[in-house]
Design goal:
Blueprint (H helix, E strand, L loop, with lengths): L1 H28 L4 E15 L7 E15 L21 H29 L1 E4 L11 H5 L6 E6 L5 E3 L3 H14 L3 E6 L7 E5 L11 H7 L10 E4 L4 H5 L6 E5 L2 E2 L3 H10 L1 E2 L2 E2 L2 E7 L2 E7 L2 E5 L2 E5 L2 E3 L5 E4 L3 H27 L11 H14 L1 H19 L7 H14 L5 H30 L4
Antiparallel strand pairs: 1-2, 3-18, 4-5, 4-6, 6-7, 8-17, 9-10, 9-13, 11-12, 13-14, 15-16
Helix pairs in contact: 1-2, 1-9, 2-8, 2-10, 2-11, 8-10, 9-10
GO molecular function: metallopeptidase activity
Subcellular location: Membrane
Enzyme class: hydrolase
Length: about 450
């Protein structure tokens, strides 16, 4: 709990400071006097100001944001000798640059964070897949247990290497949202017998990325040898005489190729409220043995499933994904662009009703993921921080009053018409913007609570 809270506060602190520093730095470069640089809102806990004429830096009690207050005639009287340092007196392009600098700073930070994560390197499951889900696109495309996905194809015919399972899932997500088929080059686990398959992601009826869609796609879990791990004392597996290290060859004369197939056979071995006895053929220290295993019945939501109380498989094969300095930067820039486009596309789909508003996340989800990523290691946390930084940058560029994007729309109007938005319309748009933001925040918080309660 403490780790989660600290990780969340660090995440907010870094992203807010970088965002506001973007505004601050460009404002100073444009000759605007910055009165206050605040981290947080509300009661001031700490302040520092070198001279009466310099910027006041403050830390406030509520750390859910920040602001940069600039000299501006619209917010109070300005001394005649300082009129040239007022924000409202600056040219249109200077005001535009100052407002855009915050979101751009977040996007640039995301590039650096993604690159740093690539430089450090992360251990990820190899793109070696287990049994695909029955009836899914992957099975219909011809994927099999033990397939190693080596590369994906571009529209121009070029192939790009896939280094890990997460990279494969990312490409599946991208192509599914775009409604495009995905060409994959696969081989067996040794890297021989290469062949090409096509995931017909363009045939998916829905373009909403959720558990139902991923089930329809049916990519297998990371390949895991059907070698038993820990056996729970007193469970059906232990009672049948199974031991850690046993390799499962067949169940009821059906070959077992991986741990996924083993779990599925066990789960399905139920007749009403009783477990159905299964004939297991195992290999133990080079010797074949036949063992009868009768699972107990457990509830999984509304379903009754079989359980034998053991770890069905070994940890998946892992690879270290790491890049050099230049390639890391290139990958960081590419991933930042891809996530930005994906975020905008998802927001657009939610706006027109093609995607569920359950995809909106709030501070509780961010805090939870922050804690999880910190526990996984520095590289994972930097990658998570990059994703949130992209989201913050893109969100602030939306054309909504109260956000930086709303102010940029005002400046676009001014540039096209030669006159600023009237005070009357500014007031109306501000009220509308506050209502939209409050609605979005309420939905995000509701989604957070629903996820924590297991309702989503």
């Amino acid at each position: 709990m403490i780790t989660t809270v600290l990780a969340f506060l660090l995440t907010l602190g870094v992203l807010i400071v970088v965002h506001e520093y973007g505004h601050y730095r460009v404002a100073v470069a444009c000759g605007v006097r910055v009165l206050r640089f605040s981290m947080g809102f509300g009661r001031v806990l700490w302040r520092r100001q070198a001279t009466p004429d310099s910027t006041e830096f403050v830390l406030s009690a509520l750390p859910l944001g920040g602001y940069v207050r600039m000299l501006d005639e619209r917010e109070g009287p300005v001394a005649p000798h300082e009129l040239d340092r007022a924000f409202n007196r600056k040219s249109l392009w200077q005001r535009t640059a100052i407002v855009a600098a915050g979101p751009i700073a977040n996007l640039l930070l995301a590039v650096v964070l993604h690159a740093a994560s690539h430089w450090i390197g992360v251990d990820e499951p190899k793109a070696l897949l287990g049994t695909p889900a029955a009836g899914g696109l992957a099975e219909r495309a011809g994927m099999r247990s033990g397939d190693w996905v080596l590369a994906y194809g571009e529209d121009d015919g070029a192939w790009n290497e896939l280094r890990s399972l997460s990279e494969l899932r990312w490409q599946v997500t991208q192509h599914a949202l775009q409604g495009r088929p995905l060409r994959l080059q696969v081989s067996d686990a040794r890297g021989v017998q290469r062949r090409e398959i096509v995931l017909a992601l363009d045939q998916l009826e829905s373009k909403e990325i959720d558990a139902a869609m991923m089930k329809r796609i049916g990519l297998g879990l990371p390949f895991s040898e059907p070698v038993l791990g820990e056996i729970k004392p007193g469970g059906p597996g232990a009672a049948a005489g199974l031991r850690s290290g046993d390799r499962v060859l067949r169940i009821d004369d059906v070959p077992i190729n991986d741990a996924y197939a083993l779990r599925e056979r066990v789960s399905a071995a139920v007749d009403g409220d009783t477990g159905r006895p299964m004939r297991w053929r195992i290999e133990r220290q080079g010797q074949g043995l036949d063992i009868v295993v009768t699972p107990r019945v457990a509830r999984d939501g509304e379903r009754r499933v079989g359980r034998v109380d053991l770890a069905p498989g070994q940890p998946p094969a892992m690879v270290t994904v790491q890049f050099g300095f230049i390639e890391g930067l290139q990958r960081g820039a590419a991933r930042t662009w891809e996530v930005s486009v994906l975020t905008l596309r998802m927001l657009g789909r939610m706006l027109i009703g093609q995607a569920s508003i359950r995809n909106l996340s709030g501070p509780l989800t961010i805090a939870d993921y922050a804690g999880q990523s910190v526990n996984q290691g520095l590289a994972y946390y930097l990658g998570f921080l990059a994703l949130v930084s992209v989201s913050l940058g893109v969100l602030n560029l939306l054309p909504l009053p109260m956000l930086d994007g709303g102010h940029l729309m005002y400046y676009l109007f001014e540039g096209l018409t030669g006159r600023p938005v009237s005070d009357l319309w500014l007031a109306r748009l501000q009220r509308g913007g506050i209502a939209v933001l409050l609605a979005m925040m309420s939905v995000a918080l509701f989604n957070d609570v629903a996820r924590l309660l297991g309702l989503h």
